[in-house]
Amino acid sequence: MHDIRFIRENPAAFDEGLARRGLEPAAESILALDVQTRAVATEMQQDQARRNELSKAIGQAMAAKDGDRAEALKAEVAALKERLPALEAQDRALIAALSDRLLALPSLPADDVPEGADEADNVEEMRWGTPPSFDFTPVDHADFGPALGLDFEGAAAISGARFAALRGGIARLHRALGQFMLDTQTERNGYEEVNPPLLVRDEALIGTGQLPKFAEDLFRTTDGRWLIPTAEVSLTNLVREQILTEAQLPIRFTALTPCFRSEAGSAGRDTRGFIRQHQFEKVELVAIAAPEQSAAEHAHMIAAAEGILQALELPYRRMLLCTGDMGFSARKTYDLEVWLPSQNCYREISSISNCGDFQARRMNARYRPEGEKGTRFLHTLNGSGLAVGRTLVAVLENGQQADGSVIIPEVLHGYMGGVTRLEPR
Predict the structure, then answer these.
(1) I need a labelling partner for 101 at 20 to 30 A (CA). Which of 29, 164, 265, 272 fits?
(2) 337/259 Cα distance (integer angstroms)
């Protein structure tokens, strides 16, 4: 959500931010709606004030036994009563139109976000680890995974495409990954574990920016609720419509949840394998911070996600996203991309964003700085720490052996009950 006062005072800067996102100028049309809205609101206030004045005047006329004046004043009050409902309806319509206009526009990028049209213009900042060398041609997980218990056919018979059932050792490895991530984020990185709702109302998705623009990417229930596409929605909205104290900040939440996405915009992409599913699990990281804390929280969150990849000994790189590749609510985003041998490239496994006060304005989430009477909007941040399914794919592919077995990273051995290798069934 955008601050209408900022647009009034900085229309050119607002349009410049939209232009960096590849969007047309919008300040003029927004301010035209704003002028209409404020004019109608002023007219309503004047009419209400006049009605109050008339009520007092009627009482005075009656006390003075001036019947003619009292009747004339009553007629004016009656005319105002007839006029006010139309003004109130117009006011509601203009407020809704202005809100809809502002809700449809993405967050403005931070000044240090690089210009660019798409992922080709993202900037690589660093690499960690060395992609493994094989004395055989590495195989796609979709080809050797079924022998380990990765069941695509059984899941398709139940649910259709983009679903998978995990069986036996591979199911345990998937569970081990999620538990390891959750334990690391809570015990080492200061995140509070939350078990949040998986079904949310419209307001929650509006708050984090998935609605109204991206409804087609979501699954909706028959009673009007939505399945969460990410635990970011539930975790961030835990502070909606609240006023926190500065002493409470920063707040760090984490959750391991199923996530549900229709993948409406990904037709033909990653149709094989476990990369892009309608249902998957993810460890989400969310931070709620004062504006002065958000840059440090962004760095902390990046380190928390990178620590998982390093512990699993998975080669990855960090990318600073350009203006054309950032998500709707983000003002600055880093992607972590893990090495996949079968594709001979890095693929996204975590996206870590600072949303500034964009989501907080949509949620009306504020804090009161110490020593001040007024309130300010919070900053919100979110990232994957990590996507469990994609991490499973990376572990399988980087640890694959010529005989179809997979070496399990040492850090997971305790979670696997001492099992160090997955063997074909």
Answers:
(1) 265
(2) 20
Catalytic residue among 167, 276, 347, 376: 276
| Residue (of 279, 50, 305, 311) closest to 156 by Cα position | 279
Is 368 catalytic? The answer is no
All structural domains of the chain: 4-103 (1.10.287.40), 119-422 (3.30.930.10)
Angstrom distance (rounded) from CA 176 to CA 29: 52
pLDDT tens for each residue of the chain, 425 residues long: 899 999 999 999 999 999 999 999 999 999 999 999 999 999 988 888 887 888 888 888 888 888 778 778 888 878 888 888 889 999 999 999 999 999 999 999 999 999 999 999 999 999 999 999 999 999 999 999 999 999 999 999 999 999 999 999 999 999 999 999 999 999 999 999 999 999 999 999 999 999 999 999 999 999 999 999 999 999 999 999 999 999 999 999 999 999 999 987 666 677 789 999 999 999 999 999 999 999 999 999 999 999 999 999 999 999 999 999 999 999 999 999 999 999 999 999 999 999 999 999 999 999 999 999 999 999 999 999 999 999 999 999 999 999 999 999 999 999 999 999 999 98
Can 261 be counted among the known catalytic residues?
A: yes
187 is catalytic: no
Among candidate residues 107, 329, 351, 384, the one labeled active-site is 351
CA distance readout (Å), 382 to 110, 152, 231, 268, 303:
16, 31, 10, 28, 13
Question: What are residue 346's DSSP bridge partners?
Answer: 339
Report pTM.
0.93
Q: At what angle do helices 169-187 and 294-311 cross, to 10 degrees?
A: 140
Options 20, 162, 172, 261, the catalytic residue: 261
Closest CA to 283 of 304, 263, 265: 304
Separation CA 425–CA 421 (nearest Å): 12
Options 252, 297, 390, 397, the catalytic residue: 390
- What are the CA-CA distances from residue 128 to residues 133, 259, 267, 309, 315 (Å)? 16, 28, 32, 9, 6
Asked if 235 and 284 touch (Cβ cutoff 8 Å), the reply is yes
Q: What are phi and psi of 189, to 5 degrees?
A: -110, 5
